[in-house]
Write a structure and sequence with these properties.
Blueprint: E1 6-7, E2 17-21, H1 33-43, E3 48-51, H2 56-66, E4 70-72, E5 77-80, E6 87-90, H3 97-114, E7 118-120, E8 131-135, H4 143-152, E9 156-159, E10 163-167, H5 173-183, E11 195-199, H6 205-208, E12 213-216, E13 233-234, H7 240-254
Parallel strand pairs: 1-13, 2-3, 2-11, 3-4, 11-12, 12-13
Antiparallel strand pairs: 4-5, 5-6, 7-8, 8-10, 9-10
Length: 255
């Protein structure tokens, strides 16, 4: 069992790559210029990978504009930067993408009809494989039962602070990250000890559990006890300020 998280400043080991959620890149939904600048500086030292539950549309834009490898849709769709267009990698067989898209859309629609207070996420139009449903305010009664039913039907289901994400079996962020480690880092996918993960939402506990070195942003302050897996480190800063703090600390280790 992992001890309580320590301040990021106690991390003294230079690491080989940074994996981070999209939540720690943005402040109020926007990537600030200072964040871009800090990431550019860090990218001179180590590779940076973005891991997000957001749609493939977001992943394509990030990979194209920022030149970063991106795991989108909770692992279902990966984008690898390329000179012209990002290379798209699916965790399902390419010929089944349309069928899975239809099936996850139907499953989310069924839940939205059965559970008052939930609705399909507005960004579903930009998803290739998975679907999401969301709610306003507190999670509605009946959502936990719907989540269990979806799992019983064979879907991968991940719950974040404001949404439920439904995808094909085997489409997980862990599997996608291990593929990136093997393909791009030319490393053993079973060993994530040389890498750092930074997250900011409750569903990042999946990644905190597999990365020896992981950081929770200040967005998770007061919620760490509820996580199934704890991060190794914490920073007080939230949103984009969190990744800037992490980048600054990592750069100090390479100086």
């Amino acid at each position: 069992m992992r001890a309580m998280p320590r301040p990021l400043t106690s991390l003294e080991t230079p690491l080989l790559a940074l994996f981070c959620s999209l939540d720690v890149l943005t402040t109020g939904g926007r990537v600030e210029p200072s964040t871009y600048a800090q990431l550019e500086a860090l990218a001179e030292a180590i590779p940076i990978f973005v891991v997000t539950r957001r749609p493939a549309g977001w992943g394509h834009a990030l990979a194209s504009v920022c030149g970063l490898p991106v795991v989108s849709e909770n692992g279902a769709v990966l984008f690898l930067p390329n000179e012209d267009e990002p290379i798209i990698v699916h965790l399902v067989e390419p010929e089944t993408v349309a069928a899975w898209s239809e099936r996850t859309a139907r499953a989310v629609a069924d839940v939205c009809r059965a559970v008052p207070g939930v609705e399909p996420s507005s960004d579903n139009a930009f998803r290739r494989v998975d679907r999401a449903l969301t709610w306003r305010g507190a999670a509605p009664a009946g959502l936990a039962d719907a989540e269990a039913r979806l799992r019983g039907e064979g879907f991968e289901v991940r719950r974040s602070s404001r949404a439920l994400h439904v995808g094909p079996p085997g489409c997980t962020r862990e599997r996608a990250v291990r593929q990136l480690v093997e393909k791009l880092m030319r490393s053993e996918p079973g060993d994530l000890s040389p890498y750092l993960y930074v997250g900011a939402d409750i569903d990042d506990d999946e990644m905190f559990g597999i990365f020896e070195h992981s950081v929770a942003a200040g967005d998770l302050a007061g919620r760490l006890d509820a996580l199934a897996s704890k991060p190794a480190y914490v920073v007080d800063a939230a949103g984009g300020a969190a990744i800037r703090a992490v980048a600054a600390h990592l750069l100090s280790l390479y100086a």
